[in-house]
Amino acid sequence: MRVLAVTHAYPQRSSRAHGVFIHRLNLGLRELGHEVHVLQLAEWCPPWPLAAVDSSWRRSHAVRDEMLDELDGIQVHHPLTITPRPSRFFSGDQWEREVRTLARYCLRRPRLAQADVVIGHFMVPDGYHALGLARALGLPSAAMAWGDDLHAWPASRVGWRQRLRVVLSGVDIPIACSRRMANDGNVWLEEPRRDWEVVYGGVDLELFRLADSRDAKRRDLIAGVPAAQSENAKLLLMLSQPVRAKGYVEMLDAWVQVRDEAREWRLLMAGGGAGDLDVEREIADRGLGNSAHWLGPQLPERIPELLQACDAFVLPSHNEGLSLSMLEAMATGLPVIATDVGGHAEVITSPSEGWLIAPRDTAALVRALREMTAAPIVRLNEMGLAARRAAARIGSPLDNAGRLAAALQRGSPSKTHGSVLEKMASRVAPGDNRHADIAR
Predict the structure, then answer these.
(1) What does the DSSP 8-state code read for residue 47?
(2) How far apart are CA 38 and CA 430, in angstroms?
(3) Which residues neighbour 301 within 8 Å (Cβ) at sequence distance 6 or greater?
(4) Which domains does the chain have, with CATH numbers?
(5) How far apart are CA 383 and CA 368, in angstroms?
(6) Tens digits of per-residue pLDDT, 93-118?
(7) Is the pLDDT of residue 430 over 70?
(8) Which CB contacts under 8 angstroms, 24+ apart, belong to 151-154?
(9) Is the distance from CB of 398 to CB of 32 less than 8 angstroms?
(10) CA neighbours within 13 Å on the CB side: how many for 24?
(11) How far apart are CA 130 and CA 6, in angstroms?
(12) Are 240 and 325 in contact (CB under 8 A)?
């Protein structure tokens, strides 16, 4: 099977964790014998130094310079799309122009045009692009919901809500990263779909494994963390993007109430990517400098050892699809406190495997933290082992790539996308086996 994967999120030169869960599924597909090509749109700009003339061109040049054209043997294509400025002077729709860009790019490359299926990772914008591209090529379409594409992004953007409904109702193969995400997808539809496929991201149990010696793992870590240098310190880790929706404010407010009782515990926070929160300042404003520390962005290759150096994990997110960092912590054998959002209840199915609390409930978080920090080490170790077994039930990226391949192979094109794509298709002459340039 030849798969075209459309995504705006994929590992970059300076951010290898960006979209890494998608890359791991792609690697799994390739290991199973399937051919994968990634399509990641890039905004056009003139070559340097001409790109320095306009601020938007400078941004576009910087983004394009970060993108990879090949990663671990998988080709990453970057069709160039133009965003006219100012847009009010230009007719047409930007999303539809992007669909035409993808179609033109693939139709000029027979190996891409002769694919078997197109999948968009994230329902919007990638699912919309994938749906349009699939219709232009006459292929089955799939779109996968990961979290914010159903929760956060459409909530604040009317146009995105409209496109989301188009994708959810029109895509041939709807896929969700958890069963709850499939239910959340149906909320947007007048008539719920019953043909959802569930494919978890998966976790590598070989890479994320129990620590041979936790003390040895933390030597390098605590060298730069004064708050954790006490010989008897226990480390609680929160690992996520520095945004409010991940629950940083609730966590720090809860830690203010817990720290005096949990004198042996130190809170470590880490995460990369763009954020709307200055975590270091939030820590300082609460006077938590002696019991909490911001580690900043972490390289993907460092995360397994960081988890192995810690004693427990917390993630009080407002919403998730299924947190990869939570799965990795559980696979490492850490007891976990997480909010009951997304697919978390599909992993933590009993109190012996971790704590599940309501999102945005600081009082519930305080209770869970008090119970965890007061628990004897024997109980924490037992919970850590149970957490690893729970993570194993989700399967590895390779296991889930197999589920994804099976879902894609079951799909068949059955719907049309709408007027724009019908116009695009009409530009290919009937009976003409040559792929025309349909997006002039």
Answers:
(1) P
(2) 29
(3) 16
(4) 2-202+397-426 (3.40.50.2000), 214-394 (3.40.50.2000)
(5) 14
(6) 889 999 999 999 999 999 999 999 99
(7) no
(8) 151/184, 151/319, 152/245, 152/319, 153/124, 154/124, 154/188
(9) yes
(10) 21
(11) 6
(12) yes
